Amino acid sequence: MFTVISNVSIFLCLVLFIRKTELAPTFTDTPPSPFYVLEGNNITFVWQYNLDGTFDRLVFRFVSSSPSRIIVFKHDINLDALVPNSFYMGRIQKNINATRAEITIFALQRSESGGYSVDLTDSTFDLASDRVTVQVQYPPEFNNVSSDAVVVEDGEPAPKITWTKVYTHGIDSVVLGTGNQFVLETNRNNSGTYRCTTYNGIGTASNRTVKVEVNCKI
pLDDT digit string (tens) for 101-125? Predict the structure, then answer.
């Protein structure tokens, strides 16, 4: 037995499929990704979108934590959006309507680098999603200086580290080495003060000095 499908039925199914695709929620403008921000500064995300029907909900999350953290939740276009996580209380400014969402996080910290996502649904329960990678930038820091070691805590972006020798008149030599390790030969001529300088383009260059004494047998 054969089933006959009319051209009219095929046409109607095709029209419905195309219409459904065209009317799904779509973002017309999204934040940059990666999105760079200096530590301690505010960051503002802006999305613009078209909806099929009416607004249903918007959920904004930090997805690089386990479990992910909901930052902003809005379910009713006529009610204010919620900030359900206490970590963000007092740090969020939001303005969300049927065509645009603007969310600001105040005083971003380096631990908040990572992925952020927004999920938008309309009254037909169609979903549109966008993901933004945030990179919080900060200068490198010295977290340990001793007589035989200088420890640099990496900044973001990764810093350039240089080593020079400080002469008695206060002038530095040319760069003698780069990177986290600087190895000297055991030679009495290498005694003296050495400077470690680190810089990644954020703020000003930082430096620390370490004194080296090479003791030789008499």
Answer: 999 999 999 999 999 999 999 988 8
CA distance 50 to 122: 10
Nearest of 141, 156, 154 to residue 205 by alpha carbon: 141
Comparing CA positions, the residue from 97, 93, 111 lying closest to residue 45 is 93
Decide: 203 and 190 in contact? Cβ < 8 Å: no
Specify the pTM: 0.79
Coil vs helix vs strand at 191: coil
β-bridge mates for residue 127, sequence order: 121
CA angle 180, 157, 109 (to 5 degrees): 115
Amino acid making up residue 151: V
User: Going from the N-terminus, what domains does the chain have, and what CATH number goes with each?
Assistant: 26-137 (2.60.40.10), 141-212 (2.60.40.10)
- Distance of alpha carbon 152 from alpha carbon 159, whole angstroms: 9
